[in-house]
Each structure stands twice: as C-alpha cells, then as structure tokens.
Amino acid sequence: MSSTTVQSVLPPTIQRPKMNVLSSKFLILTLALLSTILLSCSGEIISLDDATFEHQTQASTGMTTGSWLLFFKAQRCAHCQKLQPEFERLSEDQELLERGIVLSTVDIFKSPTTATRFMIRGFPTLIYLHKKKLYRYTGKRDYDSIKEFVTSGIDSMEGEEIPTPPSKFEAHMKTLKAIGLELYDAAMGKSGAAGYAILVMVAMLMSIFGAIIAMCFMPAKKIKTA
Questions:
Q1: How far is CA 89 from CA 26, 33, 83, 142, 157, in A?
Q2: 152-167 pLDDT per residue, tens
Q3: How far is CA 141 from CA 85, 125, 134, 192, in A?
Q4: Where are the beta strands (DSSP E) in the chain?
Q5: pTM as predicted
C-alpha cells in the first residue's frame, strides 16, 4: 500500500513596506509634540538641556508648542531652591495651563550652550518666550508677581528677538562678551566684594601670563668666553 504525502500550501510571506526617512522623522516630531502638549496640560515642569531645548520649544522655528516660561538655575544655588516651590505652584495654575504656557527648567551647568545663547549671567533667571519674542523677568521672585508678569506684565514691554542656536564661533564670542560684561560690572562696583576679588584674580593671572611671555621671547644672554 503506497503512502501519499500531503503538502500544505502556505501563503507567501507578506513583506511590509519600509518606512522612509521622512515619514519616520515626521512620526518622531509628532510624538514629541504630543508628549509636550500632554505634559503641559498635566501641569508638569519639563526639564530641558542643550540636546532637547530647541526641539521641544521650537524657539527659533515658529514656537508651535506654546509659550515657554524658562527657569535657568543651578543645583546648589540657594536662591534657586527658594524659587522652586513658587515655580511649582505656577505649573499647577489652571489659568496658565489654559493659556498654553509651558514651564521648564534649564540647569545652566549642564546646558552651557543654551545658557550662552540667552546670555545668562546669573541665577536664578526667568525668561518668557511668547509669540516669537523674549521677555526677561526682573521682578520679585514670588508666585503672584511672576504670574502677573506672564499674563499681563509683558503687554507694556518691548520683547527682544529670540536668538537662534549659535554656531561654535558665535558661542565663543558670546562667552567672551559675558566675561567682559562681568569684568565691567566688577570694575564699576556693581558686584560688591566678589567683583573686586575677581578683578584682583584677573590682574594676577595677566601678570603671570605676561611674565611667561616675556621669558619666552626674551633674548638669551651671550656667554662671554675668556
């Protein structure tokens, strides 16, 4: 008796079309925008750094993710720690949420490029990005004053142009400018005792540098032979 072999007919493998690069980038951007919107609606404070700042805020490309209140701070800064609870209260304010204002923090030591871009010279520093303009806050560091600033205070202010992400050369030039401004304030007595200490240190460093240069380029003395 002969045995028959039954062969099963399987359907051919269906290959999924590959997603092109443009579609994948669009998907990533869409997910990033959705996550930003969801975080802002839930009252979360978004932590930004050099890698995520421009992608999240779109500060120089339309600001379609909303208005941003930026809190530039340092971890060991006592004034920053004092402001933090007030900032957290603002993140839970319903009126600010309805206005589409996103609150975020930027650690200046972890984000030197962003700090240089916005010429951050001290901390804490509050900057409000709204309708493609930049507004620097210089008032009291409390909940009511900051809320009034972002809701109505800027109406009587002339905002600055939002700086674009700097090139390496522009970043170096802005750093030198910031150093120059700090030295100028110190020379004018605006920085108190700390400013004078900085001037003394700079003067000492320049003296040492000048002495080294002089030793390198000083002509060698000729040894007289008998």
A1: 34, 24, 10, 10, 25
A2: 999 999 999 999 988 8
A3: 11, 10, 18, 22
A4: 46-48, 67-73, 101-107, 125-130, 133-137, 160-161
A5: 0.64
